[in-house]
Amino acid sequence: MKQDIRKVSIGDLETFFLSNDEKKFRSKQVFEWLWKKSSTSFEQMSNLSLETRDLLNKNYQISPAIINQIQTSSDGAIKSGFKLYDGNVVEGVLIPSRKRMTACVSSQVGCSLSCTFCATGFMDRKRNLDAGEIYDQVVEINRQAKKSFSLPLTNIVFMGMGEPLLNYSNVLQSIEYITSPQGLGMSPQRITVSTAGVAKMIQRLGDDKVRFKLALSLHAADDEKRDKIMPINETNSLETLKKALRYYFDKTKNHITFEYIIFKGFNDQIEDAKKLIKFVRSFPSMVNIIEYNPVEGVEFSRAESSVTDRFRDFLEKNGVNARIRRSRGKDIDAACGQLANKS
What is the structure's pLDDT at 183? Predict the structure, then answer.
């Protein structure tokens, strides 16, 4: 099997061309076709000679993630199944609103964290996505946004299938291709990476001084409760996470978003809100309160709207910037926590 050229560095491409009596600058041309123009075949690289394209075809291949199924929600959200070169499938979602077009992308095939409320958590983690496979989701969802809504993507969230920080190097490489002037040129401030809480990798984000935004899927500011719904908390306690987040903020000065799915009778009381306030006050931050979306086989249910509103109001009265995030795509299992490749 030929090597995927998108896994080859520009330096190795230069060496390849020079060893085949081609000009060194061909590598920059190819790199631009791959990451700026999103080419999926060598035939599309029209400023290369036929001989050069044949040379590439003989030595390399391009293995893009290809949409093999699309579902459209009554609220406009579009869920796509992306078939990968090895037959695995991941899901990505276009979430439209009046002025924002958001792509929710996946970083792994399945997930290893087994959060009890999340459909993806019931799947085995088969493998990490490579940087190109993540990049492909963004390119295709951007095309959907332009075609369906005449607007380009404004935001990207790594909140699909998988834990992004357990695929650290590929996630950061994909963001480089998405944000680089030699790539898609999007602002890193329009990108949010969401983690269930891998403390040592949050610290590494600080060391790398990343420019994109960070969101922590918190869902409970009480270790006992968080242990019950998120097994990762057993090795990444709230105190450990707090230290990692403080380190991250000190290094990057990036504000932190806390995601808080509110479950009926579990974490929706004022006492829960008080614990949440105590935790998030340690950093400049905001809290997204997320409606729970039903997952087959899971006993949790959605908190009453009046309870959710009261919870939000209590946070705001105590100086916490909070908002309720209404889920989109529930009718096609495209909402937060529902991605599971059911089809």
Answer: 97
For the question of whether the overall pTM of this predicted structure is more than 0.85, the answer is: yes
Angle between helices 238-252 and 199-207 (to 10 degrees): 10
Contacts of 12 (CB under 8 A, 6+ apart): none
Cα dist from 214 to 82, 165, 197, 206, whole Å: 25, 11, 11, 11
* Domains of the chain from N-terminus onward: 3-61 (1.10.150.530), 66-332 (3.20.20.70)
Q: For residue 227, give every residue at least 6 positions away whose Cβ sits within 8 Å of its Cβ, in sequence order, or none.
A: 233, 234
Tell me the pairing of strands 322-325 and 285-291: parallel
Contact 65, 84 (CB under 8 A): yes
Number of neighbours of residue 315 by Cβ within 10 angstroms: 22
Q: Do 90 and 84 meet the contact criterion of CB atoms below 8 Å apart?
A: yes
* Cα–Cα separations (whole angstroms), residue 170 to 74, 238, 244: 34, 27, 21
Q: How would you class 324 by CB atoms within 10 Å of its CB: exposed for 0-12, middle for 13-18, buried for 19 or more? A: middle
d(CA 31, CA 5): 9
| Catalytic (active-site) positions | 91, 336
Task: Say if CB 108 and CB 167 are below 8 A apart.
Answer: yes
Write down the pLDDT at residue 295: 77
Q: What is the pLDDT of residue 172?
A: 98
Provide the percentage of residues in the chain whose pLDDT is more than 90.
Answer: 84
For residues 5 and 60, the answer to whether their CB atoms sit within 8 Å is yes
